[in-house]
Every structure is written in C-alpha cells, then in structure tokens.
C-alpha cells in the first residue's frame, strides 16, 4: 500500500512513475500512478521467474542485465523514493547513493520511506561513519520519512524552479 500511495502522489504532483516494471512493490507503485491517470513506465528485467511487465505500465523496456537497467533508472529519474524491499531494492539504492557520493549524479534526492524499516541500515551507516569508512556528509543527502506525500514534497522542493514550472499535476 505504501508503494501504491507513492505512485499516486507522484502522479498527482505531475511526475511519471518509473519502476523496474515487475510485480510486488514495483507493480504497486505503477498501479498507484495508473489509478489516478498518471503516466507509468516499467524498466523490466528478463528473468526466468519474472519475465512479464506488470499490467499497470503504459510503456516498458526489457533489459537482460541489472546494471543496464539501473543506469536507465538513474538516467531518466530526478529522484529515488525507496520503499521497503529486498536485495534488488538495496542494489539500486546503493548504486544511486554511490553515484551521488561521487558526484556523478545530482542534485538527486534519495528518500527512504519507513523510519522503522530503515532504522537498522541507518544505524549501520552511522557505525561505519564512526569507524572512519566515510564521512557523515558523504551520506547526509539521504532522507528517511514516513509518508509518501512528504517524500514527494521533498522531491518537488529539490527541483529547480525552471523544472517545477513544467510539472503538470493531476487533479484528483
């Protein structure tokens, strides 16, 4: 439900929802956008057990390799809103974080939804800061929030005014 609400809120704010195009959380985000009439794109990975794009996307592109799909997700996104997920979610989250840290992309909001879910990872990253692995400001760009509307508001606020004026919010 959290991902579905993210898709709705993104569409209402005038964004296209772009996900990995598969089932589960990705499908929920695409469904939320679709339900309010927002555009929804899927960058599908071809796997033996998950080959079909979900039914809530307007357009999709199939990829054979995760790294190529991740490049396209970053290339065509102005932010990541990350909901609780599994290894694929972590892979994409840390790839985006590394690109931001190294200045390869940005400004690029990285917003994690669900304070309780992400608490352990946050604590571990702070432990790594204490160990001298990296400086706190190298991961200070990431934000953790509890509501989809707050996450989308952060993304909207991060955009330059010249881009914000091109958003076409959907009236609900």
General description of the model:
By secondary structure, this protein is an alpha/beta fold. The chain has 7 helices and 6 strands, in the order αβαββαβαβαβαα. The chain has helices at 2-13, 25-35, 66-75, 87-101, 115-130, 148-158, 161-164; strands at 17-19, 40-45, 59-63, 80-82, 110-113, 142-145. The strands form 2 sheets. A 3-stranded parallel beta sheet has the order 1-2-3. A 3-stranded parallel beta sheet has the order 4-5-6, sandwiched between helices. The chain is globular. The protein starts with a helix and ends in an 8-residue tail after the last helix. The mean pLDDT is 92.
Short key terms for the protein model shown above:
single chain, 172 residues, alpha/beta, three-stranded parallel beta sheet, 7 helices, 6 strands, globular
Helix-residue proportion? 40-55%
Q: Give the radius of gyration.
A: 16 Å
**Sheet with most strands: strand arrangement:** 1-2-3
Write down how many β-strands occur, each being a DSSP E stretch of 2 or more residues.
6
Mean pLDDT across all amino acids: 92
Structural class by secondary-structure content: alpha/beta
Share in β-strands: 5-15%
Number of helices: 7
Order of helices and strands: HEHEEHEHEHEHH
Gross geometry: globular
Low-confidence stretches: none
Largest sheet geometry: 3 strands, parallel
Question: How many angstroms separate the termini?
Answer: 18 Å
Q: Can I get a quick summary?
A:
It contains seven helices and six strands, in the order αβαββαβαβαβαα.
